[in-house]
Design a protein that fits this description.
This protein is mostly helical and 499 residues long. Helices cover 84% and strands 0% of the residues.
Length: 499
């Protein structure tokens, strides 16, 4: 496919828009219930309950990254793989995940000893059952992504999320304490896996090294980078839990969940759709640049205001949504919200680099961060959770900047053009923050209800941001509005000149 083929471009645009529609629709259905269940669970359980389960979750995520060995991504990123090789990958993936579960079971007493928490031994064993489900699900999920089956992927994810949320709340109401979080997670994983296997069953075949050498090499780079990334990403929580205790870790993890929510629910929603898209256009540099610019602009316009707005209203938001017992989360939320702006974009950088077969570079950046970040967290923990969260912002040149430099170099995308992509959202966020701070200053020490104060700040901030874009960036907004209207009518794609 080349840029001169308008039918192909139009088809990809329609697929992208359709995928976003399905993903956004599924998220909109589940979002209300997810947030309601999360807030209800936060009130039913204690910060120590969340901290305990998070300690067990660290181990499962690490072993899951190792066990799956990037095989789902290899299926997606390597269109040359034949059906027989995919069946061999499926067998290898299941075998590795089952073996990883056995290692977790053997290591569980040592994990409990490390945290000085006896309850972790059985907690780790039970929660790690999700590793086995991952083994059966990874390759079929990669094939659904390769087929651009956005509808089925969205439905499977939504069913899993709703199942997890409802089971967790039901168990919390039933007095299961921290076990509610574990049981809900397993139920959600099982529900999503069942749908994926039903829609995209994959046979099994005896693995042969000569057939699996190339995908396993890509999987090695992906897995090594993923594991290194996971270690330094969760090391802040591990260090907080180890040095400051379970309550501090629970508050920190809640701050991380709230700060990560806009990036996960909006930014990662978009990038879950665009991963298969970049895999599809990986041989066409002009199309890669085109979609990279469109997606960067769309993500920044939608994610940045939510994150920066959260940082500004954090004190009132925490008290209203979670209660005074979570006030320790306010400081970390502010730092983490600002950093999540950079992390959201770095996820896109990494995604494009993998599609262009630069997974090894991603791995090297992750390994450097793996060395630097935990040391910084240990030092910062002397000054509390806010200092730990601040490390993410201070050291973002180590974790984010190299990916951007590499991507711009291999794609020919200019720094000036990228700044122009982000400028509307950054300027709108600055105006929004100034307006919210002015409202807060005018309220002063009044005794207005906390809900009213928060509602006023959110309303003023949202109106200011959208008003700024409408006044100063109306042409940009109209371009996307017309683009979506043309897609609905089957019209032409966005012209290259408009990008």
């Amino acid at each position: 496919m080349t840029p001169a083929e308008p039918d192909s471009v139009r088809s990809l645009d329609r697929t992208l828009a359709g995928g976003l529609a399905w993903a956004a629709g599924a998220k909109s259905v589940t979002q209300f219930f997810t947030w309601a269940f999360t807030l209800l669970t936060a009130r039913l359980l204690s910060p120590a309950d969340f901290g305990l389960v998070n300690m067990a979750g660290y181990v499962n995520v690490l072993t899951g990254s190792l066990a799956e060995f990037g095989m789902g991504q290899a299926v997606l990123q390597m269109p040359e793989l034949e059906a027989g090789t995919i069946a061999q990958l499926n067998t290898a993936c299941v075998a590795l995940c089952v073996a990883s579960y056995g290692l977790v079971v053997l290591a569980s007493p040592l994990i409990a000893m490390f945290y000085h928490e006896d309850r972790l031994a059985i907690l780790v064993v039970v929660s790690a059952v999700s590793l086995i489900a991952m083994g059966f699900q990874s390759v079929p999920t990669g094939l659904l992504e390769k087929d651009l089956a956005y509808r089925r992927l969205s439905v499977a994810e939504s069913v899993g999320i709703l199942t997890q949320a409802s089971v967790t709340v039901g168990c919390a109401l039933g007095g299961f304490a921290y076990w509610a979080l574990v049981i809900g997670g397993l139920a959600g994983r099982a529900a999503g896996m069942a749908l994926v296997l039903y829609w995209r069953p994959v046979p099994f075949a005896m693995p042969r090294w000569k057939d699996l050498r190339a995908p396993l090499r890509l999987g090695f780079h992906l897995t090594t980078g993923r594991m290194a990334t996971w270690v330094y990403v969760v090391s802040d929580g591990v260090i907080v839990g180890r040095t400051l205790g379970g309550a501090a870790n629970g508050a920190y993890q809640m701050a991380l969940s709230l700060a990560n929510a806009p990036a996960e629910k909006i930014g990662l929603l978009v990038m879950r759709v665009t991963g298969p898209l970049f895999a599809k256009v990986q041989k066409d540099p002009e199309m890669v640049r085109r979609y990279f610019r469109i997606i960067s602009e769309a993500v920044s316009l939608s994610v940045f205001p939510a994150l920066i707005g959260l940082a500004v209203v954090a004190p009132d938001a925490v008290r209203v949504l979670l209660g005074d017992k979570w006030v320790a989360a306010v400081g970390p939320i502010r730092w983490l919200a600002f950093f999540m702006c950079a992390r959201t974009m770095s996820t896109l950088f990494s995604q494009v680099l993998v599609s262009l077969r630069h997974a090894r570079f991603n791995m090297n950046v992750s390994l450097v961060s793996f060395v630097v970040m935990p040391v910084a967290f240990v030092v910062a923990s002397r000054w509390g959770t806010s200092a730990v969260a601040a490390c993410w912002v201070i050291l973002s040149p180590v974790t984010v900047l190299p990916l951007a430099v590499k991507l711009f170099r291999v794609t020919g995308f200019r720094y000036r053009d990228y700044l122009g992509v982000l400028l509307p959202s950054l300027a709108g966020c600055a105006a929004m923050a100034a307006a919210v701070l002015a409202v807060r200053a005018s309220l002063g020490a009044t005794h207005a209800p906390a809900v009213a104060r928060l509602s006023l700040q959110v309303a003023v901030g949202g109106a200011t941001y959208f008003g700024f874009l409408w006044i100063f960036c109306r042409q940009k907004l109209n371009r996307y509005i017309h683009f979506l209207q043309d897609l609905r009518r089957g019209g032409a794609a966005l012209a290259a000149a408009e990008l």
